[in-house]
Fold each of these.
Amino acid sequence: MSKSLPYSMKDVHYDNAKFRHRSFFKMVTQTLLTSNMRRECVSCSTGKFLGLLLIFGLTCLMLTHANKTHSVSHGLAKGIGTNEEHKEVTDVGIRFKKLFRRAPRLPPRLSPDEKVSHGNITGKLNEPDVEEKWKARQQNVKDAFTHAWSGYKKFAMGFDELMPESHHGVDGLGGLGATVVDALDTAMIMGLDEVVSEAGSWIESHLLERINHKGQVNLFETTIRVLGGLLSAFHLSGGDQGIAIAQKGPKPAIYLNIAKNLADRLLSAFTSSPTAIPFSDVVLRDSSAHSAPDGLSSTSEVSTLQLEFNYLSAISGDPKYGTKGMKVLEHLKTLPKVEGLVPIYINPHSGEFSGNNIRLGSRGDSYYEYLIKVWLQLRTTQDGNFTYLYDMYEEAMRGVKHMLVQKSVPSELVFVGELPTGPKGYLSPKMDHLVCFLPGTLALGATKGLTKEKAMRDNLLTFEDLENLKLAEDLAKTCFEMYSVTSTGLAPEIAYFHSKDYFEDGLDGGNKSSKYIKDIIIKHADRHNLLRPETVESLFVLYRITQDQKYREWGWQIFEAFEKYTKIESGGYTSLDDVTIIPPPKRDKMETFFLGETLKYLYLLFGDNSVIPLDKFVFNTEAHPLPIPLGKGTNMKASM
Ligand code: DMJ
């Protein structure tokens, strides 16, 4: 397969960037060369000559007719000359120099396309009936959450997950009641006081006891879901002078104490390891830890603990959590990479990466997500320099664009492929649904949580930021089309993309009216849907940043498909075995992240932008919002 990838600066039209930092000379020549004249004139040599003549003529006009009195530097120069002739030469020279001087920064403008898309689907922003429509849709999401919770409460309270068809609970995550903790802050944000009381009192009465007695848990899953959920509940119930949107449930100190107890046990994954890289599994009851049977940890797992551990250090005043977590990232900084891209396994015994498999899907994904998010969390703390995280992120995103991004055939969807045999091998046109976190992360990395409009008004975006934002929008479209190309309107777990080197017939998603039916290939083994959040997460972030209503409409289509095909009458929602056939066979499992992430992001997408603003909160990878910047008590020095 060819390694020349089509996604580069030449593919994107940077409507705003082109107005910035250009000299007058460049503006004249670029305007001429990008207009119709370019096609007509440059195609023949006489035309080229005439074009050059025109530029020359314009330049002469500027030199002879420019206003002499309006420039400070011009006035000063006049005083220096001793005779008229010298003065003229100086004037001409200065005017000539001015042509090549940097133009003052012009205010960035949204392109006509962007202006239209703000109102094109739903009418103008802030029109009362439009707002009413989104309020009603938001209420639908809230009702869905209540329905999901009611099934869980009825049949599986205290278990990790609900099996909504067979009316059972199942402990797939170590038995800490993961759904209760994952769902709690969503209920707080939705203002569902009754659910907050029920979940809060279960946590208060049972969770500590479970933590003290349960056996093996996965370090990463427990950190992102349980620890992350507790920390977010702490803040949202008023801890750390938090926003106290939850009036019901336990006091914040209850959540903090449980979080500390849990984290103290999880720390054994770090202290048992001979390197900075923690083991993957912890035995809670005796605070011991061990590596996975193959001796390896996933790269994403060891690098997706730091937001939680840093915040716990900040609110507990004990630096040990943040210190351990940051040692991992400091260590990862020193390892060799491929244009910032990393293999998906790491060996905690040697501290080295293992194998060559590079991907942004499972086992790789949140490594990239946490580089930028941990930087956002720590960038204003006085205690250390965290620029290396931003540098690692930037390098990695360049690597993504250079090594992994391609366009599909025939309709040119931009997708992120994989390098299963490393940088010298072929690019597999396979994209996990998990990769759909990337559009949101790219957008966040570009504007740092500000709206694009504000970031541009304040001149904060670099050319690279705009390129990343454009890639984010292209990828979000691809992720959305992974849903709309199937018969159910729900995405498969994995999609392949028809490329110039790869095609398989008879493996389409089933929606024959989709423009992308030939671009997206879905293998039989990959046709399940686990109610995953990544696409709606990215739609939410992109909506907040671009204010483009289309992201809300896409989110609504996805929500309607969940309602239609995954809702279980007696309570709860289910994963599916095959999204390409109707009716889709059901899998009898409601993952905790459906309540923790998917419904939370949909609710926020349809709601008011001021709720959990992206420049004041950072969402952990399980959608638990943590406040930024960190307050006093923060001490993240890895060397301590
Ligand atoms: C979640 O647990 C987290 O978002 C994680 O980073 C990836 N997988 C699931 C959701 O799909």
Note: The chain has 23 helices and 15 strands.
Amino acid sequence: MVITMRDPYLMHGGDYNPEQWLAMPEILEQDIDRFLEAGINTVTLGVFSWAKLEPKEGIYDFDWLAERIDKLYEKGISVILATPSGARPHWLAERYPQVLRVDERGKRQLFGGRHNHCLTSPVYREKVGRIDRKLAERFGAHPAVKLWHISNELGGDCHCGLCQAAFRNWLRERYQTIENLNDRWCTTFWSHTYDSFDQVEAPSAIGESSLMALNLDWKRFVTDQTISFVEQEIRAIHEGGSDKPTTVNMMYRFEGLDYGKLAGAVDLVSWDSYPLWHKESEWDTARDTAFWHDVMRGLKKKPFLLMESCPSSTNWQSVSKLKKPGMLEASSLQSIAHGSQGVLYFQMRQSRGASEKFHGAVIDHYGGSDTRTFREVCGVGRMLGKLGELAGCTTGSRVAILYDWDNLWAMKNAQGPRNKGLHYEECVDKSYRALRRLGLNVDIIDQSASLEGYRFAAAPMQYLFRPGFAQKIRSFVETGGTFVMTYWSGVVDENDRCFLGGRPADLTDVFGLRALEIDGLYDEEENAALTLEPEAGRPGWLSFMKERYACKYLCELVSPLGARPLMVYGKDFYAGEPALLRNSCGKGLAYYICADMEQKFYDDLYENLIAEAGITSGWNLEIPEGVEICSRENEDFVYWFVQNYNRYEVKVQLPQGDVIFGDKKGELRPFGSVILRVKKTL
Ligand code: GLA
Ligand code: ZN
């Protein structure tokens, strides 16, 4: 469900904790005034309010919340209502210790922190369900409430007896017999064969940790258990009579849950973005953040929501760096450019004590509106206020990059071929940067996603192939797509068992080669890929590639079975062996990159492949270094976002169209942006 389809505005606001200020009504009054000044139209309530909503077991006090929601609504401010399950009150843990998590050494945690309860505990589920139902009964139909925010930043695992038992049931369902499990997990190795499901324990540093398939299944189980917890919360909301859409807020580079799967449990994907701006280069940070926006959009191939961002500095990063003037506008607009339905902050008002009192907020301890942060937030409010027509716009993309949690877990957990670092994220990033510098919108998708509609796809280091993935690649190529795969792909199945009979599994004919061995390089070592002279039958564009590109970390050796080598290694005993190959298969092309190549290699290669595939971003003018280009569209218009992440002014030549934000001549100050509206032609 896309919320803004019904509401043509972009959201602006964030996490708001009036429960911390109930004893100071003048502060609550002041909050509303400030919200109106800053163009705030949405606040998230109730994220950690359980102790105030149910001060004693079964005694609910919702009146303070009702009063706040009514007040906000009166002033035209909408509410995202959270379920309070992200942190529990003392009485709950005291009375029912089973709600507290047990660590992998079997130690039950004391009360404290947040996000650390057992998601299996029937007591926890029941108490959460009860309060969720009651919240839905009371507020579910309130016109101010637009969206349910389920729990908060879900993550982590629990090793208690209840979770272990649930895990065994999960395994029974998956494998049916213990013999089957033993076979799939390769437990003959080191005599770790199980006699029954009852012997299985969750992976632990003081127990079993060398069965990679167990580790992998535990992670899948944790995802499924989290999803079932979320679904139970959503059911409770429905039982309480509310059918408003739901979301969970996800996190940057979070590996604990398969977000590809979790996304399916809710209507809208949202995430919390806290980039480390003003490090070496804003351009690097911008591209990294852009990648994660695109991950979030790719989860449902739909607009997402920036649920949290910081208006100034966080207090949990190693250095609390302020956002320099202009960065709030740039980073906020960047989220919209990549498909967000709004800009929300953590937090609206800075708390007075405890652990987040120095975390940036729209309103700080001083309380006035004459602060730099507040002025910049007002600027964002004015900007978003003028951009309502972007609400509900979608992102068109013909190119995709594969990024899959099962693959990530398995590859990082495997011993070898380079325990010192596979440099996987960098490998993905290189493909991403090479495509983005051409101004192309890029979808980041997992192996379960459809490849339909794309004309080019890159699969960096797909070590694990989920069932059906190889077939998907085959049909994609056969029907005319260009598919790029790298070294260390198609190595294991979904149980981390090596495929027999040659890799990339089931695709040796599609790529026209067989991978033989892979060489790990020491950090200081380097090899090179040398471009072969173009000859008849080889693509002419090869002459536009440089003669030599550096490669590091991993070099795979392959034997061509029909594919044409386009580059060869420069040294070592495999000098002269292929480093880049191309194979025609059906109507399409399959490229295989054998080593961890430098960025420039990807830039040059993809520029050529994209042109060869006849794909254009629609932006035909030059894109200067450090400038990000994105587009969103609706039936009538394409909206181009141009953003300068250089520390100096840049002049960007703009195509014909209406500049609806920023400088009409395309003169972009550092962190400056332009939005251009171009009428679609039939
Ligand atoms: C997370 C949490 C918030 C808050 C912020 C601080 O994103 O969801 O409750 O702690 O971090 O940056
Ligand atoms: Zn548990």
Note: The two ends are 28 Å apart (CA to CA).
